[in-house]
Amino acid sequence: MSFCLMDGNEAVAWGAWAAGCRFFAGYPITPATGILNAMLAILPPAGGICLQGEDEIASMGYCLGASVAGMKVMTATSGPGISLCSEQISFAVGSEIPIVIVDVQRLGPSTGSATRGADGDIQFLRWGNSGGLPVFVLAPTDVKDCFELTVEAFNLSEAFRCPVFVASNKEIAMTKESVAIDVRQPRPGRERPAPRPDLPYLPFGVNGDQKVPGFLPIGGRTIVRQTSSTHGPDGYITTNPEEIALVQQRLLEKLQGAPEFFSLYPEKTNAPPDFIILTYGVTSRAARAAVKLLNQEGRNGAVLALKTLWPVPEEIILTQTRHVQQVFVIEMNLGQYINEIQRVLPHKQVHFHGRMDGTLITPLEIMEVVRHAR
Amino acid sequence: MPDSLLNQSRPPVFCPGCSHERVVLALNSALMNMGLAAHQVAIVSDIGCSGLFDTFFNTHALHGLHGRALTYAAGLKLACPDLTVIVTMGDGGLGIGGAHLLSACRRNLDVTLLVLNNFNYGMTGGQFSATTPVDAAVESGFLNRLETPVDVCRLAQAAGAAYTAACSSFQKNLPQEIEQALRFEGFAVLDIRGICPGRYTKKNKLSPKMIEKELAHQPLEQTHHLPINRKEYGRRYREQSALQKPAQPPVSMLPQHPAPSNARWEIMILGDAGQRVQTAGEILCLAGMSAGLRVTQKNDYHITVLRGPSISEIILSPDEIDFTGITKPGVILAIGQAGVNTRQKVFRQLDPQAMIIQTPGVDLPTVSGSIHLADFKDLGIKREDWSLAALMVLARLGTVLHKDMLRSAIQARFKSTALESALALFEKVEILK
Ligand code: SF4
Predict the structure, then answer these.
(1) Do B74 and A62 touch (CB under 8 A)?
(2) B-chain residues within 8 Å CB-CB of A115?
């Protein structure tokens, strides 16, 4: 098996390509610029489009315009840019426009440190849209995940007609690794659901317990209306509370509908462990190293590295921690996802350790946390 | 062919006397005259009263955020080059989306922008906009008196717009004005001046006559400047794209050599900017991969890429690599002072078995590892090749990698002259004592 050497940013770009993404727009920002560079190398020669927007808002706007025409689209940025994108994110949520948004997180707050990593945007990604409706957030742990989860992100985005975030981190995005992936192998995935041919087309119309409306592109033979305003099934502005409530409820339920489909996490160890380190992103790797060493000392621990952060995979968290008393939540921030874990596991001993100073949390540090817990 | 593209079930709902309605009708006439069918047209609209436009037409519609309509239109047009894409925005959208207007002008994508300019924010209560006259009485108190209004056409022209024209909502030939803009293959800006009786003319006097007079007073090159013959962006994009070479996939490597040991190695290359530290790190990774090892490479350098330290941290391992950080490297290649200074702490923690390759002019803190001096200067090796040369010295020592691994890596990474000169370095390093 041949291995290739690439960093997380390149892996995201090739993953997008393999998933059928043919439109990318982004604004240069460290540590996400590598994705723009790679997309510029990949897309135009292959007949796709890659734009450098005048800012992040525009970049995402270009993507949304191409997405409503039926293209698979992606943008990539970092903390300062994702903050600007907030209103476009809300548009994509409310108007059910598929888009993959890569946030290569860097140390914040604000412009922070361009070349230092952190996982400081995890709650922002979830709640950074006006209206507070749910979104998907996937968190890669390594370069291979950057490829695989980007492919998944497109599947989810197309199937559910919604924005999907890939919460990368400088520490993965700009770290090269040997990976056994053939980047040229297409990875066809799920498409947007088609409308029922026997009914007149309604851009936001659903039948029965259908949650995702059928898609037709702007520019096709059938007239399509897209709008950021509060709308009914026909895409016209509405003030009818019942009609509004139905759409809002559907937007909520559509992302909570099939947890087994979107909850991604690695298979777990065999014997029921005594404690679990629950983490995500690059920190999972330090956690794995720490648990290996602790288990060599006679402890019996396991790592639960969540790859879907939002919607919170509650079932998985409950099942995987069923037999353990102690859960350690380790985050490369000062405590964000811990709130969710405490909510899901109110009767467990949940310990938290977090650090956000631009350096990786080390295995030794995690071992100390576990050793000193009582 | 229908006799109108107007939405029969949604007639315009503007305030009585609002000039927007005239533009709706004129746009419909223009589209009809061009013989366009409903599905061949998309109206992309903005926020404000002008944002109602898309609902009055039975065409494709995309209604989005304030000031961002031009961004959606660009993505849509690039995805559907045959679609007629029209953007409507008010003087409000023009102001808040200023950066997008400038970009659209510079780009020249085949989109038509209708600015429904009524000199104030109608929908939010009549506040001042980017085009409100200094002496107008608006809902923003004295604030508009402090700011100079912009002229839409001149602004667009300064940004390189290939087609600009100013006109009145009341002029008879408005449909022809709009049609001409629509037929222009490129970005066309129409500054359509109008009256907002709901807000603006409650306190200000403005009549169709006054608009006409004002337009007549402006020099023709400001209101109607001759279309510039510039190729449309989409066409140019597709032409240029076709000339680009296909992307190269990342460098790959088949395991082909035995690894010198079963150990996991953590290696730091500490150098100065310009010493090709990152490239050497990559080559070390490829060398490891040629022996079937797993590798990671973390780089650290200043944003001022030509000054300061340049550091590469590499792990070679027979097993999957979990943690990618290095605190206690087994090997340090001390190539440049800036890199060494940045990682002073690492030297204090070194194991006695650690190997250090030290190059001339680099001062090291007192350390416990074994130091190998490599006087590359003496051999006439250029500073930018020291990182690679140090790898060759490491290969000679044979514990971390061997020469065959390094040679395979160099062959995978370099081509033609760069490859020859990299391979020639081997000979030079051979002489080193
Ligand atoms: S507020 Fe002004 S712009 Fe808006 S509909 Fe009324 S008259 Fe027209």
Answers:
(1) yes
(2) 300-301, 303
Fold that domain B20-241 belongs to in CATH: Rossmann fold (3.40.50)
Chain A nearest CA to B277, separation (Å):
14
CB of B52 within 6 A of ligand 1: the answer is no
Query: Residue A109: is the preceding peptide bond cis (ω within 30°)?
Result: yes
Q: Is B12 in the pocket of ligand 1 (CB under 6 A)?
A: no
Residues in chain B: 433
Mean pLDDT, chain B, integer: 95
The superfamily in CATH containing domain B265-430 is: Pyruvate-ferredoxin oxidoreductase, PFOR, domain III (3.40.920.10)
- Residues 127-156 of chain A with CB under 8 A from chain B are none
The pair phi, psi for residue B234, each rounded to 5°, is -60, -45
**In chain B, whose CA is at the least distance from the CA of A173?**
B298
| pLDDT score recorded for residue B417 | 94
Q: Measured between alpha carbons, how far is A139 from B95 in angstroms, rounded to an integer?
A: 38
- Domains belonging to chain A, first-starting first, are 1-262 (3.40.50.970), 266-371 (3.40.50.920)
Q: What's the pLDDT at B433?
A: 67
- B203 pLDDT tier (thresholds 50, 70, 90): very high
Q: What is the pLDDT of residue A270?
A: 59
Q: How many CB atoms lie within 10 A of CB B377?
A: 13
Complex-level ipTM beyond the 0.95 threshold? yes
Confidence of residue B130 (pLDDT cuts 50, 70, 90): very high
What lies within 8 Å, CB to CB, of A274 at 6+ separation is A299, A300, A301, A324, A325, A326
pTM of the model: 0.97
Q: Hey, of A50, A90, A226, A295, which one would you mutate to test binding to chain B, going by the most B CBs within 10 A of its CB?
A: A226
Tokens of B184: 């222009």
Confidence of residue B3 (pLDDT cuts 50, 70, 90): confident
For chain A, the farthest-separated pair of C-alpha atoms sits apart, in whole angstroms, at 67
Distance from the A49 Cα atom to the nearest Cα atom in chain B, whole angstroms: 8
For every residue of B52-63, DSSP letters joined together read GGGGGBSSEEEE
Tens-place pLDDT, residues B57-81: 999 999 999 999 999 999 999 999 9
pLDDT < 50: residue spans in chain A: none
Q: Kindly state whether B159 is in contact with chain A, defined as any CB-CB distance less than 8 angstroms.
A: no
* Partners of residue A38 in chain B, C-beta under 8 Å: 247
Please give the pLDDT value at position B302: 80
Interface residue A223 vs chain B (CB under 8 A) = yes
DSSP state of A108: -
Look up residue A365 and give its two tokens: 């540090």
